[in-house]
Amino acid sequence: QKKSSRLSAALFGEDCEVSHDQLYELLKYAALGKCHSATQPSWCRIYHQSHLAGVVVIVLHEMSQLHFYKFYLQFKHLRKLFRHRFTLTPSTNFLASLYGEGANPKPQNTAQGLNSTSSECVPKSSDLQSDPIIQKYGEKKRGLTSYTLTLEEQKKNYYPIKGSPGCKGYIYTECDQPRTDSSPLFGLDCEMCLTSKGNEVTRVSLVDAQGQCLLNELVKPEGTVVNYRTRFSGITKKMLLPVKTRLSDIQTRLKKMLPRDAVLVGHSLNADLQALEMIHPSVIDTSLLFARNEGRRFKLKFLAKAVLGKDIQCEQKLGHDPAEDARAALELAQFFIEQGPAKVAELNLEMLLTTEKLAEASQNKAALQPQGCRVQEQLNELPDLSKPCFLDCLRVTGQNPLLLGRQELGSSGLCQSNLSTSNKQILQRALEDVPLSTFSIIEFSLGPESIASHLAGLCEKVRSKLTDMLTIYAGPFEESFCLKSVRKEFGRCGPIRSLTVVTETYQPYVCIQYEVLEAAQLAVESLNGAEVAGSCIKVQRPVTAAMLDCDVLIKELELDVENEGVIYVAGLKKSLTETDLQEEFSQLKDLETLFLPKDCQSGKHRNCCFLKFQKSQSAVDALEVINSWTMKGSTLRSRNALASGHLWRWIWQMKHSNEKQGGNMLYEKMEQLCDSEQELRKKVKKLDHRIKKLYRSLQNNTLCVVVFPGVN
Q1: Where's the RRM domain (predicted)?
Q2: Domain map of the chain by residue range?
Q3: What angle, rounded to 10 degrees, do the helices at 645-656 and 455-469 form?
Q4: Res. 687: pLDDT tops 90
């Protein structure tokens, strides 16, 4: 993101993985902002969205994370220009999901009322099976415990979780009794104001299962209020002046009021619990309960009208009423539980939403007609459910999104400007047209002949090189050396995946394969020439043609902007908890985040961690301190980080998903790849240069996202 508008996001572990739905959230909010009721993404935050000049998505057709790491050195400018990187989880067709193609059937031309019972609005039984609600829950009625979020769902949707690093200091409700289908439901909603400390709670409402309001309290924020957001929160300066109640008072009251088996209900309840700085184990989130395709969510206002027949958040009122919103969410959950998924699916909410949009578009058409034919032509087109909402909003207001690429991408509704035949032509058009568009998608391609035909061989080459980089050979040792001592000494550098004794040599050597790159590098740097198990040993990586540029690659990884201010620490005792480590490292200056890698299968943490500091110099100072530390009797070793969270996760996946292939076939593919790899490197280097050129032509305050969508 260029200059003053800022993007903030976590960059460790699971937070490094985003779905195309989450990317959609980011693009939608960046393109529309609050003026079209778009909300901040659930997984990151854009500051000063109103300052954004535009959004540019660069799609590298059929290229994936595999290509990024295979041609890591060639993507020189891409690595330096883009600070935030995330693994994009695979989807059946990423571009289709981005443009919204084929997500839902097109709407009928006849408008229906929101509460219409016309047979055209009721889906056929065959259509019910494809409804996302039926696909998620089935057709049978279930008890409320079937609809509470699992721990994994809570993590995925950024609920505060007990013991997680970001929830230090949060209050736990201690509602630990097992839930049953007769456990009490409570509706919760909060209103927030923007303060010098960020979003802070200024009003809290709690209602019981009968809809009675148990709590409806104003709260004095700790920070100075920057924006009361009166239009949405209903909070004014005058209202807060006499208030004495603080967040800690509300936390105490909520904790006392909730029974030990309470289930909290809310709409996007994660935001409320985060603002309250409270953790509750059992929740029903109505924004997820009424499931939609492509991860999109219905608004509470729409659901209240369509399902309950109630008007809430009326424009005549000053801001939202949290008690009203809490009651609406509670009643929606009760309706879902009592009626069952099949009855809810029969409401055909997608069709009702389309009807609402048609009515709005018709009103907008009348209002905008004097502005001329161009806008009128846009409005004459019915909104198509097969397109994402935010692209519709852009089109209806006359802001045509721009698409530049080599090939037609279907009826995406984007203004496809002069289809080009080469990356050079696409770049030339982009330099001219992108400044005129608020939302642009630019697609570059190396050509199918460069990607698809070599994919299997490319995958094997990258896997092989990563394996070599994670592997070290150490020796020679005496014939009767103690293998346990060797494992212990090398284990202090980081988690070992495998250790074998090499017997083909005159004296024995050991071959050690580590789980993380830093561990292998630390072993080479700290144990080469050291005395281990009674022998002065040499430590080195395998010597192969692919490893000749290993030192260059290691240096580039170390200097990568993503690893700025991040250090790797090994030699931790596995008995230490994350809380223990937070306390031990708390004395380090400017420590921002501690990340403890876990085994993807067992869930147990490794004997190493990553520390991220606010300033690079603080990371350098911490290295000196830690390398002289002994923690709980264990000597620590540390160095600059090499692999960001998404890379080490990807390495693990690469190593565990390696499929066995026929030797001759793979050999032929590898040979074929070697013949053209030099040419491919040149193409990637040229592509990297074009990305740099396009990026540098963008206006200040442009959000730019580069996507490696892969092939499936």
Answers
A1: 470-544, 565-643
A2: 142-339, 458-550, 564-641
A3: 110
A4: yes
Q: Please name the fold of domain 564-641.
A: Alpha-Beta Plaits (3.30.70)
Determine the Cα–Cα distance for residues 467 and 454; give it in Å rounded to an integer. 20
The more confidently predicted of residues 158 and 126 is 158
Q: What's the CA angle centered on 372, arms 368 and 378, to 5 degrees?
A: 70
Per CATH, domain 142-339 is 3.30.420.10? yes
Q: How far apart are CA 212 and CA 234, in angstroms?
A: 21
Closest CA to 666 of 525, 493, 459: 459
> Cβ distance 428 to 418 under 8 Å?
no
**Residue 410 pLDDT:** 38
Residues 614-654 have pLDDT tens digits of 999 999 999 999 988 888 778 899 999 998 666 666 666 66
Neighbours of 199 (CB within 10 A): 18
Reading the block at residue 97, the tokens are 């999901």
Helices assigned H by DSSP within 371-471? 373-380, 389-396, 423-433, 448-451, 455-469
Same CATH fold assignment for domains 142-339 and 458-550: no
For residue 476, cis peptide bond before it (omega within 30 degrees of 0): yes
d(CA 226, CA 108): 46
Query: What pLDDT score does 509 carry?
Result: 96
| C-alpha–C-alpha distance, residues 597 and 603, integer Å | 9
Q: Give this prediction's pTM.
A: 0.55
String of b and e for 81-100 (b: at least 16 CB within 10 Å)? bbebbbbbeebeebbbbbbb
pLDDT of residue 373: 36
List all residues 6 or more positions away from 403 whose beta carbon is below 8 Å from its beta carbon: 409, 412, 414, 415, 416, 417, 440, 441, 443
Mean pLDDT, the chain, rounded, equals: 80
Q: Which residue in the block uniquely carries the two structure tokens 């879902």?
A: 336
Strands 634-635 and 630-631: antiparallel
The Cα 324–Cα 188 span in angstroms is: 10
Residue 97 scores a pLDDT above 80: no
| Adjacent-strand bridge partners of 500 | 511
Distances (CA, A) of 397 to 33, 89, 111, 261, 575: 14, 32, 22, 49, 59
Q: In this structure, are residues 173 and 253 in contact, taking their beta carbons and an 8 Å threshold?
A: no
Percent of the chain whose predicted confidence (pLDDT) is above 70 = 76
CA 173 – CA 175 distance, rounded (Å): 5
Other beta carbons within 10 angstroms of residue 456's beta carbon come to 17
Q: How many residues does the chain have?
A: 712
Mean pLDDT, residues 467-474 taken together: 94
Element (H, E) at 39: none
247-266 average pLDDT score: 96
- Lookup: tokens for 432: 């001219």
Nearest-angstrom CA–CA distance, 369 and 384: 21
Architecture of domain 458-550: 2-Layer Sandwich (3.30)
Of the candidates 669, 666, 566, 571, the one whose C-alpha atom is nearest the C-alpha of residue 622 is 566
Closest listed residue to residue 694, CA positions, set 50, 70, 57: 57
CA distance 48 to 226: 13
For the stretch 330-351, pLDDT in tens is: 999 999 999 999 999 988 888 8
